[in-house]
Amino acid sequence: MPLGVYLLGLAILTAAGAVLRWIWLDHPMRYDESWSYLHYILPGGLADCLVYSAANNHVLYTLLVALAAGIGGGGPAVLRMPAFLAGVALVPACGYLAAVMSGRRLAGLLVAAFAAGSGVLIAYSVNSRGYSMLCLAAVLLAACTLKGMRDVRRTAPWVQWAVVAALGLFTIPLMLYPMIALAAVVLLQARLGPVQAEARRVAWRRLALAFGGAVVLAAILYQPVILVTGTRAIQSDGTVRAAPWEVYHLGLYALVADQQLAPKPIGQVAAALPGVYAGVWDDWTAGASWLWLVLVGVGLVSATCEGIIRRRAPHLLAVVLAGVLIVLTLLHGVIPLPRMWMFALPLVLAVASCGLAGLVGWIPRRRVRAGATAILLLATAGASAQAGGRAMRWDHLPFGDATMLDARTIISDCMTLADGHTGLAWDYEGMPWPVIEYYSVVLATPGKHFVPYLESDCRRVLVIVGRGQGLQSVLAHRPLLDEAYGPMLIWRRYASADVCLASRRP
């Protein structure tokens, strides 16, 4: 395939992927991205971005979002811009990886088409979290691995490997998974290929230095996080009553011992894995047609066979990933959410595309091979376009965490009563409250904002009651609200909630 045709096709597919993602850029905020904004970005300080109070803080992504919010404000499109840019860049990055892996530009166009129209990749490209950056880092790391394997004596690919891996770890520690999987590919190739003992030792030494360098660099990047988190962990009245090393150890503990990811018995994790597989399969294939499934399935089988026959470990990356993820999950003792394995999808699609391109390469006659190439490109583009088109017809992107589709409308309507003497209340249980709180902050202006409902100058309160909650349940969790205000009368009804209005009792 001529270079000009390849670059033009890659540009078209990247533009198509950008359009599919841009359409969703301003869709309603979700629970986790709203929570992260409220806790790490809204306070406005650099130290707040570095507090590792939960695994929600994807630190490098948080810093980029803070920069974007400082320039463009706190709107959904601005907060999601780093994820959007990484998601768009993922399309040509996948194309580059597949072209390097197979030596065929056709594979690059095929995987770019798959990545551009993938529903789950679209969803996380417009979710203000670090997952699309993690996917991009995994793809770039795989490309560095392949370049390093071509000539193990070259230093540059392994330096790039260490830098990319460290930045991925600074985004989400889950980057350790693709690092280990790609290291396993290097070691497997050293065993499969006709490599001399000296070259094998060089490859292992370069890999060990790159891996160790990535860990050390990531540890250096996390030092401010550890110090800030340790300081925040022991502050109660604005002072620090501990020695500096105690502060440091508290921060390190908070970083590595996240209570949300508490280890579980290995038997419990193993029993939960089939459900995890089902969730991953549902996410990866959402919106996919039977043609998409056939193309990816045939490609994976072809790549695996080629990897075994020709002793090419990179073509066995999908198999290696499956084994490494299972082993690491059992060792880690944490039941993963489906999105925790999402970084593997671009790598699997790249392997499948290499397998499809390899099948076409077996055709001896040039004209027949050219026709088969055109048919394969059209079929892949059609399957990807169909998947992307189905994603555009969803009411909302069905991945990740909860949202309220009408949250912005609810808060906008409530803002019509915000006069400096009106409060807003809701129950934290049974509804995605960070979404409500996010819009109540973002839509507020100096003349239109809510006041705490327990303050003496608050004369009335709006109470948001989510579907399935019930007013009495909300008041049971907010007894002071019931004591101070009443009676609670329905003010407006919405698809996801009712809003009640009450005046302060005498």
Q: How many structural domains can be distinguished in the coordinates? A: 2
Strand order of the largest sheet: 1-2-4-3
Main sheet properties? 4 strands, mixed
What are the segments in which pLDDT stays under 50 over at least 5 consecutive residues?
Answer: none
Shape, please?
Answer: globular
- The radius of gyration over CA amounts to 26 Å
State the secondary-structure class: mainly alpha
How far apart, in Å, are the first and last alpha carbons?
Answer: 81 Å
What's the average pLDDT? 88
What is the subunit arrangement here?
single chain
Describe this structure in words.
The protein is mainly alpha-helical. It has helices at 3-22, 31-41, 46-49, 59-72, 76-79, 81-102, 105-117, 119-125, 131-150, 156-171, 176-192, 197-221, 223-234, 244-256, 266-285, 290-309, 317-332, 344-361, 366-392, 407-415, 433-442, 471-477, 479-484; strands spanning 422-426, 460-466, 489-493, 497-503. It has two domains: 3-221 and 258-392, no CATH class; 407-503. A four-stranded mixed sheet has the order 1-2-4-3, with no helix packed on it. β1 (422-426), α21 (433-442) and β2 (460-466) form a beta-alpha-beta unit. The model has no long low-confidence stretch (mean pLDDT 88).
What's a concise summary of this model?
It contains 23 helices and 4 strands. It has helices at 3-22, 31-41, 46-49, 59-72, 76-79, 81-102, 105-117, 119-125, 131-150, 156-171, 176-192, 197-221, 223-234, 244-256, 266-285, 290-309, 317-332, 344-361, 366-392, 407-415, 433-442, 471-477, 479-484, and strands at residues 422-426, 460-466, 489-493, 497-503.
